[in-house]
Design goal:
The complex is a heterodimer. Chain A is mainly α. Chain A folds into six domains: 6-191, Rossmann fold; 195-267; 271-375; 388-612, Tetratricopeptide repeat domain (Serine Threonine Protein Phosphatase 5, Tetratricopeptide repeat); 695-817, Serine Threonine Protein Phosphatase 5, Tetratricopeptide repeat (Alpha Horseshoe), CATH 1.25.40.10; 827-881, Orthogonal Bundle (Arc Repressor Mutant, subunit A), CATH 1.10.10. By secondary structure, chain B is an alpha+beta fold. Chain B has one domain (5-79): Alpha-Beta Plaits, CATH 3.30.70. A four-stranded antiparallel β-sheet of chain B has the order 2-3-1-4. In chain B, strand 2 and strand 3 form a beta hairpin. The longest helix of chain B has 13 residues, at 49-61. Chain B starts with a strand and ends with a helix. Classes of the chains: A mainly alpha, B alpha+beta. Chain A binds chain B through residues 42-44, 166-167, 225, 228, 253-259, 331, 334-335, 338, 342, and chain B through 12-16, 18, 33, 37-38, 57, 60-65.
Chain lengths: 886, 88
């Protein structure tokens, strides 16, 4: 939240001597009942002051205030201000926590999701809240306007919305609300100062009495427009002949002679004050030290102080209790800016922005600084500012901010700077948009090679940049299964990157561990892991998290579930303490996996079911894995409807978040579940039409090729079994090479089942023994249960021969407790199955059911597929054991 | 909506020449002072209606009431600017 300016979250303070306007306050009071209040009038009618005064007069009201500016045309930033303002009103309850969660998403969720969440959050306020958005006309971004439109359409009963704006906002239902008296409007005609009010203002601004004729003249001329009246009042100060001045004003014949009045006001300022006003007009908000930096050093006595200027009525409003920050009245500032541009020209104005940028950067207001530097056209300093901060921001994981900063820069500037190109690559990586990364890295590399004078192209050591590139390349090589190349890149990255680049070094360490493991160098990986675990870099979350992730990946793939559990528990504590969604969800994924395998299904459920709430803030992989896990749990509770529903939700979110690369895995998993239900037809259909997922090197849930093996085995033909055997050979080679025990256990178990089905009982037992040998240290249970009763038979045989009897006994106990899943037969299929059991021929069945023989044969084929059998005899036998028939 | 066209805009009151310079060289301004009210008519080319809305709001922001906006046919753009050039 460091990016938000607190001064925007409270109303500006009223100037001294502000005259309260009871008739308008009463009007506003009545608006509370109507729910929506619109204060709509041109600049200078005293809108903001009126509302600020109202809030001061009604201290019992619970309120949230946001002063908007042009920079808030950014959905993320706008909503951060809005929700933070609400939380300032309800610091305990933090009712918009859900919306803020979405804002921290790696990739902003769809607008509809954000809008609905915001409306739901605001509907649950503990009690009524008045939300004020000042200068709402500055919001031009359609996305924000859409959010506001939905909010107004579904305005919660506890929320009153007050918009202060120069023009009527494009909101739905305004006319209807007006007709139904659900809208209070305070417009220019209401805001106009009536004669008595105007007289008070005039007296106050001039500081003297004004003669009657002049007062009437000025009031008529300004038509109750307060800023005009105030300017006129200021111009009257120091006029020897008020009446003469008023006549000049009239003779000037401008109805609302803003320029004339401002000219008069400025003409009466001492030169230092005049220069001060013009130069500081470049600032959105002002404090003495910043102004001094922008205006330049004058003699101490000549340096105007903001408090003094504000006191003399020069349209400065104080923004905080301490009297540090001020802002000009927007209209006054606009006029000053015009004068400044006319008088000084672009180059000098740019110099002012530059000085403001430098001061703001030095005082930690980086984003404001960046905007000024860009207005100054000073790209070099802007880039230097980003380069100075990018490393700390990467370490802290402030990707949203980095992304916004990059978007502020013109594209060609990014394209010229290797460090910015690589920064962009980091932000893309973080949003899982890998495709565009190689080109960016290449571009950065080419630039660095061309540039001999590196100071021209940024301040970051090319060696560091190379280290960063190598980290990103190591990751990409790893996911292309090019482990040797990945390992080389990680080593070069670790050599190049300085010690305090914890995030980038952590990434390099992670992929070094993964690459070593995948190259079968488990020992070396574990040695390396232990060395790093002793290192003091570990006190930084980014490094520790990445290292633990690597540890989990290794233990997961070598089948060491006990250590995986330890890593998971440790990560979970760490993640919860530091509130890091990535750490929490990876930990829960690890723990869910361990407990599922150990058949502690309630514990597995507890961890997996806690992942979806983080789906927007975490890596999509962890959400995906948890959802597959939940579907498996639903299946093992015989709740097929819930399993399907879980997968449907996953598919929906996957599309919503544009993570389509996960779709083939989900399809493969659906086929796997179909097999578990005994629905071979659906599974076969998948092998014929579905996209095969790329083989994954880690310990993820769905290894598509193994599911394919299972489908081929279920088809039960000689050809399909041959194909299954072939596939198992290639999978086996891969798993051996990568020392992936988790895959090997499954592969040996499948080999055993395949041999058994082919009548090679001896080979089957040898393979089963191998699977058990690998699985026993980790204590895997469910992995075998998922393979069906045939696996139980093989295991029972092994146990009877005295092999791993205790462990197998535990597996068999789970088998016995597991409900047997029944094939999903239609009523017609059950009918036919009954007749088959009675020994009727196809022709007899056709006659009995008034069907053609061809149709009966088709039904038979489906029945066999769904039951995973090959002929009538097997079908009848299985139907009996499953109690399918009466 | 998105085409270059000539607009004639009439408002109550006046602004000084510097405003006109900001609008561009091919804008003309005409005052009318009939003793009861001062009105100003400005005529010139705008590239689309986004520019038009921007111009109207800057008038609105300094409190000059709008009296009339006239859209002159796009074909008129050429002849109008030719006239301007002939004058110069």
């Amino acid at each position: 939240m460091g990016t938000l300016l607190n001064t925007k979250l409270r109303p500006p303070r009223l100037r001294e001597g502000y005259t309260t306007r009871p008739r308008l306050l009463a009007q506003l009071d009545s608006g509370l009942v109507q729910g929506l209040i619109l204060v709509s009038a041109p600049a200078g009618y005293g809108k903001t002051s009126l509302v600020a005064d109202w809030l001061q007069q009604r201290p019992a009201l619970s309120t949230a205030w946001v002063s908007l500016d042009e920079n808030d045309n950014d959905l993320d930033l706008f909503l951060r201000y809005l929700t933070t303002a609400v939380h300032n009103a309800f610091p305990q309850e933090r009712p918009c926590a859900n919306t803020q969660t979405l804002l921290n998403a790696l990739q902003l969720p769809p607008l509809e999701t954000i809008t609905n969440t915001l409306v739901n959050d605001l509907a649950r306020l503990p009690h009524a809240l008045l939300l004020i958005l000042d200068d709402y006309h500055l919001i031009t971004l359609p996305a924000i306007q859409q959010v506001m439109a939905v909010l107004v359409r579904h305005l919660p009963a506890t929320l009153q919305l007050l918009l202060i704006t120069r023009v009527d906002p494009a909101l739905p239902l305004l006319a209807r609300r007006r007709a139904q008296q659900q809208l209070l409007e305070v417009r220019a005609a209401d805001l106009r100062f009536v004669q008595a009010e105007a007289r008070a203002v005039l007296r106050q601004t001039t500081g003297t009495t004004v003669d009657e004729a002049t007062a009437v003249l000025l009031e008529t001329q300004t038509e109750g427009w307060i800023i005009g009246l105030q300017l006129a009042g200021l111009s009257l100060r120091g006029q020897a002949d008020q009446a003469a001045f008023a006549r000049t004003f009239l003779a000037h014949s401008h109805r609302l002679a803003m320029d004339f009045l401002l000219g008069e006001v400025l003409a009466h300022q001492p030169p230092p004050v005049l220069a001060f006003l013009l130069k500081t007009a470049v600032l959105e908000r002002l404090c003495d030290s910043l102004c001094q930096a922008v205006v330049g050093l004058g003699l101490a006595g000549e340096r105007p102080l903001l408090a003094t200027l504000a006191g003399s009525g020069l349209f400065l409003a104080s923004l905080d209790e301490e009297g540090v920050w001020y802002r000009y009245h927007p209209l006054f500032r606009e006029l000053l800016q015009r004068r400044l541009a006319q008088k000084w020209g672009q180059a000098k104005v740019a110099a002012l922005h530059r000085r403001a940028g430098v001061w703001l950067a030095e005082h930690g207001f980086s984003e404001e600084a960046l905007r000024h530097l860009l207005m100054a056209g000073d790209m070099a300093t802007a880039v230097a500012l980003i380069e100075d901060q990018r490393h700390d921001m990467l370490n802290r994981g402030e990707m949203h901010r980095l992304n916004r900063w990059l978007e502020l820069l013109p594209e060609h500037v990014v394209a010229q700077h290797p460090s910015l190109l690589q920064l962009k690559a980091w932000t893309l990586r973080w949003q899982a948009k890998f495709q565009a990364i190689p080109a960016l890295l290449q571009q950065a590399e080419t630039l660095l090679a061309q540039e001999t004078d590196i100071t021209v192209r940024g301040s970051i050591d090319p060696a560091i940049l190379r280290g960063e590139r190598d980290v990103l390349r190591a990751e990409m090589a790893f996911f292309q299964n090019d482990f040797q190349r990945s390992l080389t890149f990680t080593q070069s990255a670790l050599d190049c990157l300085p010690y305090h680049y914890f995030f980038a070094r952590g990434m390099a360490a992670l992929f070094q561990l993964l690459a070593q493991q995948s190259l079968g160098q488990t020992e070396a990986a574990l040695r390396q892991l232990n060395a790093w675990l002793d290192d003091e870099q570990l006190q930084y979350h980014a490094f520790r998290y990445l290292l633990l992730l690597g540890a989990g990946a290794i233990y997961g793939s070598v089948g060491d579930l006990k250590r995986l559990e330890q890593v998971g528990q440790f990560m979970l504590q760490l993640g919860l303490a530091d509130e890091k969604p990535l750490t929490i969800t990876w930990a829960r994924h690890f723990l869910g996996h361990v407990y599922y395998q150990w058949n502690r299904l309630d514990d597995a459920y507890a961890h997996w079911s806690a992942v979806p709430e983080w789906r927007y803030q975490t890596n999509f992989r962890t959400y995906h894995e948890a959802m597959l896990g939940l579907a498996l749990l639903a299946h093992s509770a015989n709740d097929e409807a819930r399993a399907r529903q879980t997968l449907d939700t996953l598919t929906q979110v996957l599309l919503e978040m544009n993570q389509v690369q996960f779709a083939p895995e989900v399809e493969a998993f659906r086929a796997r579940l179909a097999l578990l239900r005994g629905d071979v037809g659906t599974a076969v259909h998948w092998t014929q039409t579905g996209t095969q997922p790329a083989r994954l090197p880690l310990w993820f849930w769905e290894a598509g090729e193994l599911t394919r093996v299972k489908v081929l085995m279920a088809q039960g033909t000689a050809v399909s079994r041959q194909e299954a055997a072939k596939l198992l050979t290639t999978c086996g080679q891969y798993a051996e090479e990568t020392a992936n025990v988790w895959l090997l256990i499954q592969i040996w178990a499948l080999r055993a089942l395949l041999a058994q089905a082919q009548g090679q009982s001896k080979e089957a037992l040898v393979a089963a023994e191998q699977a058990v040998r690998l699985a026993e240290p980790g204590g895997y249970l469910r992995l075998f249960v998922e393979l069906g009763p045939e696996m139980a038979d093989l295991l029972a045989q092994l146990a009877r021969r005295g092999f791993a009897a205790a462990y197998i006994g535990r597996i068999l106990a789970v088998f016995r407790a597991a409900p047997i899943s029944k094939p999903d037969l239609t009523r017609r299929e059950l009918e036919i199955l009954t007749l088959l059991q009675q020994g009727l021929s196809n022709k007899e069945i056709a006659g009995r059911l008034v069907l053609s023989v061809l149709t009966v044969k088709r039904h038979n084929r489906n029945i066999y597929l769904k039951m995973g059998v090959n002929n009538r005899r097997q079908a009848i036998a299985k139907a009996k054991t499953l109690n399918l028939l009466p | 909506m998105h085409e270059t066209a000539v607009y004639r805009i009439r408002f109550q009151g006046a602004f000084d020449d510097s405003w006109l310079q900001d609008l561009g060289t091919d804008w003309t301004m005409q005052f009318n002072d009939d003793n009861t009210a001062v009105t100003t008519t400005i005529t010139g080319i705008l590239c689309d209606q986004a520019a038009l809305i921007g111009l109207l709001s800057s008038l609105y922001n300094v409190g000059l009431p709008l009296l009339e906006v006239e859209y002159l046919e796009t074909e008129a753009v050429r002849s109008w600017s030719e006239e301007q050039q002939a004058d110069n």
